[in-house]
Amino acid sequence: MDVKNDQTSTAQADAKPEAVPAEKKKINPGLKLVLEMGPLAAFFLTNWKFGIFPATGVLMVCVVAALAMSWLLVRHLPVMPVVTAVAVVFFGGLTFLFQSETFIKMKPTFVNIIFGSALIGALAFGKLLLPIVLDSVMQLKEEGWRKLTIRWGVFFFALAILNEIVWRTQSTDFWVSFKVFGIMPLTLVFAMSQVPLILKYELKDDEAKDAPEHF
Question: Nearest Cα to 95, choosing from 145, 59, 125?
């Protein structure tokens, strides 16, 4: 009897506690806004004072600096800022290489097409990439994720078309202003308009535990 008790005690002592997944760190919302809007503000001010080429160089430096700061703070890089930064550096480099502002103007078009295509394309194969793209911690029913994915995919394509119209028909200064004071407010308004859908399909705490992984 004592032997069994000793064996049970030993097994319990040797049993390792179940690992608890570390919660992903989040940046303070105010600081996150600064990291997102800072490069755009610097781009706008530099273009206003010195022109599009110096502004492009400043934007390239600022987006990389913002990514580095984000990594230092949370040891995690959201997909959307990473893709955007890569595109800025790539198209910015082409802008300087060919001395043509057309490339930096086309950057938003390509980035939005990439996001829209990734979301809709993955959905066609039964994958939901929207939580990754938006760095989201929301828990929604599958129907909700699908509807939200389609809406964001269409929105990204709409932004791509809108950017093409603006840069091809308006001056450089107007395009820069539109990029800073047009696209961001449009994105914010669109995101806020999705709140009713999110609330409708949001999973409760007990439902979220049993929700399947889609990505």
Answer: 59
